Amino acid sequence: xxxxxxxxxxxxxxxxxxxxxxxxxxxxxxxxxxxxxxxxxxxxxxxxxxxxxxxxxxxxxxxxxxxxxxxxxxxxxxxxxxxxxxxxxxxxxxxxxxxxxxxxxxxxxxxxxxxxxxxxxxxxxxxxxxxxxxxxxxxxxxxxxxxxxxxxxxxxxxxxxxxxxxxxxxxxxxxxxxxxxxxxxxxxxxxxxxxxxxxxxxxxxxxxxxxxxxxxxxxxxxxxxxxxxxxxxxxxxxxxxxxxxxxxxxxxxxxxxxxxxxxxxxxxxxxxxxxxxx
Length: 278
Ligand SMILES: [Zn+2]
Known about the structure:
Blueprint: H1 37-49, H2 55-64, H3 66-74, H4 84-102, H5 130-152, H6 154-172, H7 179-207, H8 213-236, H9 243-274
Bound molecules: zinc ion.
């Protein structure tokens, strides 16, 4: 392999034995003047499977020892792990794609129109006057729009939930970690949990979307979020490993997820009732 005399990124002069540019850190050995398909294949496989800092390595670590992984990252081990924000955007892409294919959020109501095929709408018994019917139509349209919003704009919902949950955790533990550190913790945990929901919950919700099991699945998903988050915080916060301290983490995780749940329900409920926002 020919060793370039100057760094290809910043043109700093390189010595014969330099593995990396002393100025910008770019590899001196593995950077080439022309890009071939074999380089691309190598780079892609490397990014996904490399024992250190790979995408799958991070997933494995977050599945088996999330507390230790995130604690190490916060303590400065950045090169060892895949960047949390790249991780977030890759999973976001997979999430949007899988939701646009599966549409787990009640597709039955996404296509509400006041006039059905027969030209007659079946109103509930208590809806009698034309004014009530008009209001009923309006609300049904908004419900279908809200469901449609969750189907198509999950990326926005996901983007807002991460900084929001981080903010609640910051309010609870502001003496221990900066807001930015909470944001890193929640980016890791939220993204991992969303990946889990893509692989497990979204397909299950799709299968059971018209039965009572879908409510049970939603509850299980919430419970998984709370427990995972509490395990991570129990490890990340440098405190005595006591049952009392764990229960505190469990309580704060519950509050954060609940606050997010209430906020999103208020936003959707507010829209359905008053038609605000959209
Ligand atoms: Zn350089």
